[in-house]
Amino acid sequence: AQSVAQPEDQVNVAEGNPLTVKCTYSVSGNPYLFWYVQYPNRGLQFLLKYITGDNLVKGSYGFEAEFNKSQTSFHLKKPSALVSDSALYFCAVRDTSHPVSNFGNEKLTFGTGTRLTIIP
Amino acid sequence: ETGVTQTPRHLVMGMTNKKSLKCEQHLGHNAMYWYKQSAKKPLELMFVYNFKEQTENNSVPSRFSPECPNSSHLFLHLHTLQPEDSALYLCASSRTGGFSAFFGQGTRLTVV
Question: Among B40, B92, B98, whose Cβ lies nearest the Cβ of A112?
Answer without folding.
Answer: B40
